[in-house]
Amino acid sequence: MVRNMTEKEYLNKDLELKLLQELDENEAEMYGRKCAICGKRQFMFVLPPKEVEIELWMWYRKCWKCGKETPVLWTSPHSVVGEFNVDPVSFEELPKKISEIYPFFKLTFSKTMGENVYGNVCINCGAYQGNWFVWEELLEIAYEPSKIAEKRRISLTDQERLERAFPEEVLNLEKHHISYDPEKFVFCV
User: Quick one: which of 35, 41, 48, 169 has the fewest CB in 10 Å?
Assistant: First the structure.
């Protein structure tokens, strides 16, 4: 989703400070840089929009256990929020919303991971299809436009938006405060 500059919502100073404290030392130093002359920040953190469009792709595959066809779904490789790709478990509420629409996508036990995960189960025998295998198949079907695609809109919670805030360069320090008069030349670092 492309948003113009006037629509962007930046983090307030308190939340931005909290986010900078959670970053590792090198990232915090880079994203916290300011102009030595005027004090303006080089980067500001942008919040993703409150509503994002997530594209779900559904297709059919043979169940590994019973051999019958069963529907499976995954998010499109084009589903991006801010600078992050989205998968069905990227957001806390997304798996629940998907399972309400598609009952074959539900909380199930993964023997490989040793825990309950959201994933596709066979509509015939109930076998978990394995998120890795479904994702791997997604990469193949991405080149087959005959597959069914559905788009759904979800709302992000404030916490989910904060977790996906991303830095954006708003000030080029190398060209900021530069004068073409050699006597007044200032280079900010």
Answer: 169
Residue 18 and residue 104 share a domain: no
CB 49 within 8 Å of CB 55: no
* pLDDT, mean of residues 107-127: 95
Residues 18 and 75 in one domain: no
- Which residues are CB-neighbours of 65 under 8 A, at least 6 positions away? 122, 125, 127
State the residue for tokens 């066809």. Answer: 69
Residues whose CB falls within 8 Å of the CB of residue 11, separated by 6 or more in sequence, listed in order: 19, 44, 45, 46, 47, 162, 165
Say yes or no: 87 and 128 in one domain: yes
Beta bridge partners of 118: 107
Q: Do 34 and 119 sit in the same domain of this protein? A: no
pLDDT at 4 over 90: no
pTM for the model:
0.62
Residue 78 included in any domain = yes
Buried b (16+ CB within 10 A) or exposed e, 118-137: bbbbbeeeeebbbbeebeee
pLDDT in tens, 129-164: 999 999 999 888 878 767 765 666 666 777 777 777
Amino acid sitting at position 36: A
Residue 166 scores a pLDDT above 70: yes
